Amino acid sequence: EIVSRDWSSDVCSSDLAAVATRSPDDFSVLAFGKDVVVVKGQTTPKPADSIVTYLLSLRGFGTTDLAGALQVAAGQLARSRAARKVVVVLSDCRATVDGDPVAAAAALDELVVVAPAADADEAAAFCRLTGARLATVSGPSEVAEALMHALDGGA
User: How far is CA 96 from CA 26, 35, 62, 113, 148, in A?
Assistant: First the structure.
């Protein structure tokens, strides 16, 4: 899971819970803005409350390195034992740092973008270019259901 710093911390913690229930040990959590932070590495155990606490502290500001986040996600997933390797991005996909997020997305097996419904135009364009699935949400209460629907092949 990749979380843009521009996202509401409530949305992030809801999404983390949805991801963790699908695979409680084999997942990564990244946060990105100008830099990409590995909050929980693919092979590193970390208590869920520690991850959620970090995500709740995120505040949106500055630039967004979507390409860098996708590249780090690919590196994390390379260590996964899962047969299905999915990257979930919570972002409006408005890249503001040099880099090619479309090329970075091409290196991923599967990509799902969860974007705010009120600000999803760039995310929709990114998904069209990359073949990623898009789920939009109006608030935190919609994240888990939208993510599960997208992961099950819906949009």
Answer: 30, 12, 9, 17, 29
CB 111 within 8 A of CB 87: yes
Instruction: Please state the pTM of the whole predicted model.
Output: 0.83
Q: For residue 63, give both structure tokens.
A: 């630039």
Phi, psi torsion values for 12, nearest 5 degrees:
-60, -45
Summarised one tens digit per residue, pLDDT across range 45-77 is 888 788 878 877 777 767 888 999 999 999 999
Enclosing H/E stretch for 87? strand 86-90
* pLDDT, tens digit, 9 for 90 and up, residues 120-140: 999 999 999 999 999 999 987
How many other β-carbons are positioned within 10 Å of the β-carbon of residue 74?
17
Token output for 41: 């590495």
Three-class DSSP category at 79: coil
